Amino acid sequence: MSLLDYFRKQRKSTASVARERLQILVAHDRLRSSGPDYLPQLQQEILAVIRKYVEIGDDDVRVQLDQQGNTSVLELNVTLPDEK
Q1: Per-residue pLDDT tens for 50-66?
Q2: Which residues have C-beta within 8 Å of that of residue 54, sequence separation ≥ 6?
Q3: Cβ distance 47 to 61 under 8 Å?
Q4: Distance (Å, rounded) from C-alpha 50 to C-alpha 15?
Q5: How many CA atoms lie within 13 A of 29 on its CB side?
């Protein structure tokens, strides 16, 4: 291997790049769909309750269910706007 080969970028074919992106999307979709059926509805209801007090967008509330051994952990992330 020469010194110049070290600095050259190997170009990936567009097919391999597209395949990698598709694998990422499929893995992300599997993670999202592996949760219980009530999670999307729970997220919408939490969003509705928070909107009674603060204006937030649809993407500002995330609900995720994680398995840690024999325990299920419900994680709720809410991004609130800055106070004015």
Answers
A1: 889 888 888 888 888 78
A2: 80, 81
A3: yes
A4: 44
A5: 6
